[in-house]
Amino acid sequence: MKISYHGHSVVKVVTGDHTILFDPFISGNEACDLDADTIKADVILLTHAHNDHVGDTFEIAKRNNSIVVAPNELANYLAAKGLNAHPMHIGGSHEFDFGRVKFTQAFHGSSYTEEDGTVNYGGMPGGILFTAEGKTIYHVGDTALFTDLKMYGEMNDIDIAFVPIGDNFTMGPEDALVAADWIKAKITVPVHYNTFPVIEQDPDGYASKVKTGEGRALKIGEELEL
C-alpha cells in the first residue's frame, strides 16, 4: 500500500488493485500537486460536504466512474447529480471490494455551496477509518478535539492517522497533540494547514512534538509505503 499527501486534506492511497482519494480538493488548492483533469481514482472517500473537501469530486468521479463514499445526505445529493454514490452514516461500516470503510464522529459543520450561492445541507461530518491489505488509515476529518478519539485509538490498531492542525476551523496544534496521544497511530501526519492565511501553522514543529508513535509532516506529493 502506498500513501501520499497532496495539500490541505487530500490523501491518495494506492493498493494492489485500487486508487482511493480522500477529500480531493485540487482545483483552487495552490498547495496541491495533482491534476484534476488527469488524476485516476477508482474510489473517492469524503469526510464531509464543505467545498474544500468535496473539491473536484464531480469531475473526477464522472471521468473515472468512481464510487463515491460519503455521509448519507451528501451521498444522496451527489447521486442526484449523477454520481455513483454510496451513503453511510456515523458509526456504520461497510466491506467494499477495495477495503473496509467506517465513519467516526467529527465535531464540525457540513454543507455544500453551489456556484450561485445556494447552500445544501450535507448531513453530519465524519472521520473515516479505512482498512485494506491489513493496514488501517484514520482520516480524522475536520474536527475539534473530543474524548471519543481516545476510544477510537483503543478499539483500532491504526497504522497512520491524518490529523488537522490548522486551528480556527478545526483543532489547532496543541489539541492535535492530545489527539495524537489518544489515537495512538504508528505514524501521525498533520493536515488541513497553510491552505489559507487563517490556518497557517508549522507542520514540522507539530510533528516533532508528537509523543505517541512517529510524527511526520509529509511534503506535498511525498509517498509512504506501508
Taking Cα atoms only, what radius of gyration do you get, to the nearest Å? 16 Å
Structurally, how many domains make up the residues?
1
Instruction: Return the CATH architecture.
Output: 4-Layer Sandwich
* CATH superfamily annotation: Ribonuclease Z/Hydroxyacylglutathione hydrolase-like
Strand order in the largest sheet: 6-5-4-3-2-1-16
Specify the overall morphology.
globular
Helix proportion range: 10-25%
The count of helical stretches stands at: 6
Would you list the SSEs in sequence order as H and E?
EEEEHHEHEEEEEEEHEHEHEE
* Low confidence ranges: none
Structural class: alpha/beta
Strand content: 25-35%
End-to-end span in angstroms? Answer: 5 Å
Question: What name is given to the CATH topology?
Answer: Metallo-beta-lactamase, Chain A
Topology, number of strands: 16
- The CATH class is Alpha Beta
Largest sheet, in brief, is:
7 strands, mixed
Mean of residue pLDDT? 97
Protein name: UPF0173 metal-dependent hydrolase CIL03_00835
GO molecular function: hydrolase activity
Keywords: Hydrolase
Organism: Virgibacillus indicus
Q: How does this structure look, described?
A:
With 226 residues, the chain is α/β, with parallel strands linked by helices. Helices cover 21% and strands 31% of the residues. It has a single domain (2-216), classed as Ribonuclease Z/Hydroxyacylglutathione hydrolase-like (Metallo-beta-lactamase, Chain A, 4-Layer Sandwich). It contains 6 helices and 16 strands. A 7-stranded mixed sheet has the order 6-5-4-3-2-1-16, covered by helices on one side. A 7-stranded mixed sheet has the order 7-8-11-12-13-14-15. Helix 4 packs parallel to helix 5 (173-183). The N and C termini lie close together (5 Å).
